[in-house]
Specification:
The chain is of the alpha+beta class and about 750 residues long. The protein has helices at about 5-10, 15-20, 35, 60-75, 80-90, 95-140, 160-185, 200-215, 245-250, 255-270, 290-295, 325-330, 335-340, 415, 455-460, 470-485, 495-520, 570-575, 645-655, 715-735, and strands at about 280, 290, 310-320, 345-355, 365-375, 385-395, 400-405, 420, 425-430, 435-450, 525-530, 540-545, 555-565, 595-600, 610-615, 625-635, 635-645, 665-675, 695-705, 740. Among the domains are: about 70-125, Arc Repressor Mutant, subunit A, CATH 1.10.10.60; about 250-405 and about 415-485, START domain (Alpha-D-Glucose-1,6-Bisphosphate, Chain A, domain 4, 2-Layer Sandwich), CATH 3.30.530; about 495-675 and about 690-735, Alpha-D-Glucose-1,6-Bisphosphate, Chain A, domain 4 (2-Layer Sandwich). The chain is built from 20 helices and 20 strands. Strands 11, 12, 13, 14, 15, 16, 17, 18, 19 and 20 form a 10-stranded antiparallel beta sheet that branches. Strands 3, 4, 5, 6, 7, 8, 9 and 10 form an 8-stranded antiparallel beta sheet that branches. Strands 1-2 form a two-stranded antiparallel sheet. Keywords: Coiled coil, DNA-binding, Homeobox, Nucleus, Transcription, Transcription regulation.
Length: about 750
């Protein structure tokens, strides 16, 4: 049966005219049972009895149908109590209500199945067309040297024939190298002399077969030519690759395949439990990568480690409440991946899909991507990385997805990997029997530590800035939030399901804009300002909004800084999210206490929610200014983001209206747990007094002039900087913190 979300989706596109085409006795327009509606139509004059009089139908009036349709969009399966309430309100019998919903669901299911059939037929036609194009491209391949067909006979896809063809192509390649060395005087090493790294036969033999099956190695179609000096390794070429890409992309697809296979082999070995590659810490200590064992086990296939770079490597395993294939689909979609990790990924884009994989399993899917990774602090530079992402299904219930940095320009490492490069990293996903998945995440990077402020160096070296623990914590929190929101037992106060979704969408945009303002993402065109009176640990940026309805028009100023707080993460989070204590630090409260109108829970725990706050009335007059606030906390950090909103605008959103035109500028706090600066790496302690402390990032976005063409003044910058400093000092005073370590 279709899920509630599918029913709502079809219901929104429902055509009322479809009902008029149904038979009058189909039971939808009336509410009588099927036995009464499907009586004997034939006259019974044969047996001498008078014909049975047909049962009279009751047709619902437009008001009743409108009310039933509205309720159906919210709840397609009403319980007995809800049916009785509808019966009383619409002057209908409970049985009529029951059969109306039954017939409506049946019709909706029919529409959904028809829609799916049309979609599948279109997909089938598309695949047939692509298959025909591939066959034509192979059949018409011409050798540039002799002008004869490169493949004179029908290609056999048997493994033995593929191996023979692969051997022939290798011989042709070696002859071409020899001719190049002779006539050009250039030394081009053969694949046997310097073989490219390849994974173990047992793990990736299936991958190699697929690669050889569909490759175009050695076939020159038209003007397509392969680089003469390229290391082809085992003859592997791109699986399921569209031949037209060869005209568009300057990089070598075969090189990416070799790197992907080697990276997958490394990830699998790194994820194996009991592997000597990892050293377990004392007690609850974290695992540490054994660098000597790592160097003995693996060879570097993306180049030597750049001078001055530091290694960070972490591994974490957890149970996540979702099926493995659902997580695979999310990770292979750049937009959904960025939405799943909004505070870690400021931008993600798929540059090219080299292989879409096999069916819905995404087996052997390979794509070229670019992303910006961030820690919510102006003192940690964004990591902009180009990488390939490779997905492999190792069994019916096990998938692995690996990322590894690449250099498309073939430039020097110092130019390509400006401040970071990602070694084979990713996750191994195993479906369990209880609708959970076991996820083992591995993160391995090398970065330039000199670009990172000393306050964050212990956090990054321990892996809690970009490490596996943070990815797993975010993943678990996001899917717990999703399960919480889909639960029928969770309701916001005075807000329906549509309004709740609209408000959560607005909060999502608010949190995203806050993160972009902290990390200076390239998504928003921020201009960095250097003002003499502003400290070097404060980042001040500006941009102009000319036509975006999602924020006020004019000049927007962003200011952010990070400081050390000698208190636990949980203590600081509890203070900042408490609306009763907000007047101790927030100038928007004007010294008055705040109160929560209502909140929508986003996960377990009291602090994971989206709330609407308002200030207490002054002299009996109610304020028209409300505050939208989102808060969450997990083992690797916490977030408090808020923005003032107009009361009339938020009412529209709560009633299910469009939230994209609600103008807001977010401000807030990001908290990262404290990490010991000496001794073995330990799990961060977020709620015990033994913790060293935590790092607080404060960020404000303020409209300083409503005229986009106006000049930005030094006084405006100093005002925002003063607001930043005063807020930190007020938090310090309220918590009686005497050693608030401003970054030095």
């Amino acid at each position: 049966m279709a899920s509630h979300g599918e029913l709502r989706l079809i219901g929104e596109n429902y055509d009322p005219g479809f009902i008029g085409m149904m038979k009058e006795d189909d039971g939808y327009g009336s509410s009588d049972d099927f036995e009464g509606a499907l009586g004997n139509d034939q006259d019974t004059a044969d047996n001498g009895r008078p014909p049975k009089k047909k049962k009279k139908f009751h047709r619902h009036n437009p008001h009743q149908i409108h009310e039933l349709e509205s309720f159906f969009k919210e709840c397609p399966h009403p319980d007995e109590k809800q049916r009785r309430e509808l019966s009383r309100r619409l002057a209908l019998e409970s049985k009529q209500i029951k059969f109306w919903f039954q017939n409506r669901r049946t019709q909706m299911k029919t529409q959904l199945e028809r829609h799916e059939n049309v979609f599948l037929k279109q997909e089938n036609d598309k695949l047939r067309a692509e298959n025909d194009l591939l066959r034509q491209a192979i059949a018409s391949a011409i050798c540039n040297n002799c002008g004869v067909p490169a493949v004179p006979d029908e290609i056999s896809y048997e493994p033995s024939q593929l191996m023979i063809e692969n051997s022939r192509l290798k011989d042709e390649l070696n002859r071409a190298r020899a001719l190049t060395n002779k006539f050009l005087g250039r030394h081009l090493s053969s694949s046997s002399a310097n073989p490219s790294p390849s994974p173990s036969q047992g793990l990736n033999s299936n991958v190699e077969v697929v690669v050889r099956r569909t490759g175009f190695c050695g076939l020159n179609n038209g003007s397509i030519s392969l680089p003469m000096g390229f290391e082809f390794g085992h003859g592997a070429t791109m699986p399921l690759m569209n031949p037209s890409f060869a005209y568009e992309m300057p990089y070598d697809k075969s090189a990416l395949v070799d790197v992907a296979l080697a990276a997958m082999d490394e990830l699998i070995k790194m994820a194996q439990m009991g592997n000597p590659l990892w050293i377990k810490g004392f007690g609850d200590g974290m695992e540490t990568l054994n660098l000597e064992e790592y160097k003995r086990t693996f060879s570097s296939f993306i180049g030597m480690k750049p001078s001055g770079f530091t290694t960070e490597a972490t591994r974490e395993t957890a149970m996540v409440p979702l099926r493995g294939l659902a997580l695979v689909d999310t990770l292979m979609d750049a937009n959904r991946w960025a939405e799943m990790f909004p505070c870690m990924i400021s931008r993600a884009v798929t540059i090219d899909v080299l292989s879409s994989g096999k069916g819905v399993t995404r087996d052997n899917a390979l794509q070229l991507m670019e992303a910006e990774f961030q820690v919510l602090s102006p003192l940690v530079p964004i990591r902009q990385i180009q990488f390939i992402r490779f997905c492999k299904q190792h069994s019916d219930s096990v998938w692995a997805i690996v990322d590894v940095s690449i250099n498309l320009s073939n430039a020097a490492n110092a130019l390509m990997f400006a401040n970071c490069r990602r070694l084979p990293s990713g996750c191994v996903i195993q479906d369990m029997d209880n609708k959970y998945s076991k996820v083992t995440w591995v993160e391995h990077s090398e970065y330039d530590e000199s670009t990172v402020h000393h306050l964050f160096r212990p956090l990054l070296s321990s892996g809690f800035g970009f490490g596996a623990q943070r990815w797993i914590a975010t993943l678990r929190r996001q899917y717990s939030s999703l399960a919480q929101l889909m639960s029928p037992d969770i309701h916001g106060e005075d807000i329906n399901t549509v309004g709740k979704k609209s408000m959560l969408k607005l909060a999502q945009r608010m949190a995203y804009n806050f993160s972009a303002g902290i990390g200076a993402s390239s998504v928003n065109k921020w201009d960095k300002l250097n003002v003499g009176n502003v400290g070097e640990d404060v980042r001040v940026m500006t941009r102009k909004n000319v036509n975006d309805p999602g924020e006020p028009l004019g000049i927007v100023l962003s200011a952010a800084t990070s400081v050390w707080m000698p208190i636990t993460q949980q203590t600081l989070f509890g203070f900042l999210r408490n609306e009763r204590m907000r007047n101790q630090w927030d100038i928007l409260s004007s010294g008055r206490p705040m109160q929560a109108m209502f909140s929508v829970a986003k996960g377990p725990g009291q602090g994971n929610c989206v709330s609407i706050l308002r200030g207490a009335a002054v002299n009996g007059s109610d304020t028209n200014m409300l505050i939208l606030q989102e808060t969450w906390s997990d083992a690797c950090g916490a977030l408090i983001v808020y923005a003032p909103v107009d009361a009339s605008s938020i009412r529209v959103v709560m009633n299910g209206g469009d939230s994209s035109h609600v103008a807001l500028l977010p401000s807030g706090f990001a908290i990262l747990p404290g990490v010991q600066t000496d001794g073995p790496s330990m799990q961060p302690d977020i709620d015990e007094n033994t913790s060293d402390g935590c790092i607080l990032t404060v960020g404000f976005q303020i409209l300083v002039n409503s005229v986009p063409t106006a000049k930005l003044t030094v006084e405006s910058v100093e005002t925002v900087n003063h607001l930043l400093t005063c807020t930190v000092e007020k938090i310090k005073a309220a918590l009686s913190v005497t050693q608030l370590g401003s970054v030095e």
